[in-house]
Amino acid sequence: MATEFKRKIMTNVPVTALPNTTNDTSTLYKAPANCDTVIIGMLLTNTSGSSITADVLLASEAGTAGPEDGTLGDENVYIIKGAQIPVGSALEVISGKVVVANTGSNAATGDFVQVRCSAASSLDIIMSILENTP
After folding, report:
1. How far apart are CA 54 and CA 87, in angstroms?
2. Can you give the pLDDT at residue 70?
3. In what order do the strands lie in the sheet with 76-85?
4. Among 134, 112, 127, which residue's Cα sits nearest to residue 27?
5. Higher pLDDT, 111 or 63
6. Rounded distance between C-alpha atoms, residue 106 and residue 116, angstroms
7. Closest to 115 (Cα-Cα) out of 5, 37, 32, 24
8. Residue 62: band (very low, low, confident or very high) from pLDDT cuts 50, 70, 90
9. The dihedral formed by the CA atoms of 58, 61, 63 and 66, expressed in degrees to the nearest 10
10. How many Å apart are CA 94 and CA 54, to the nearest integer?
């Protein structure tokens, strides 16, 4: 199994409501085919002159079992929702580890991370990950 550390960056995070099923502008990361990824850390930075709020969503792999009833379907889980980030501040969203998975051979079926900000051109994100591929 090959492992590789990577960094994903997004500047000027969009204001589009989550989950964004219209396009990929809100998608920070999508797990590649046959890959399990560990998010090691995520830092959200307010680049504007006023306070903002931010959301980070993890949408689970298509066809995975739901957490409570075992039914099949897509599960969207907020890692953080409506988090206030004051002027000149940053927020460490993930200080532990979160797994983003894609157990299939189709890149379109894997987990993905989407982000949103309350104000346009006001939020930058840095996410550190470890990808594990067969």
Report:
1. 13
2. 39
3. 27-30, 112-117, 52-59, 76-85
4. 112
5. 111
6. 26
7. 24
8. low
9. -40
10. 14
pLDDT digits (tens, 9 = 90+) for 13-36: 999 999 888 888 999 999 888 888
**Whole-structure pTM value:** 0.86
- Residue 91 has a CB neighbour count (10 Å cut-off) of 17
Domains of the chain: 2-133 (2.60.120)
CB burial of residue 61 (10 Å; 0-12, 13-18, 19+): middle
Instruction: Compute the residue count for the chain.
Output: 134
Residue ranges of E strands in the chain: 2-10, 27-30, 35-46, 52-59, 76-85, 90-94, 98-102, 112-117, 123-133
Q: State the Cα–Cα distance between residues 6 and 30, nearest whole angstrom.
A: 13
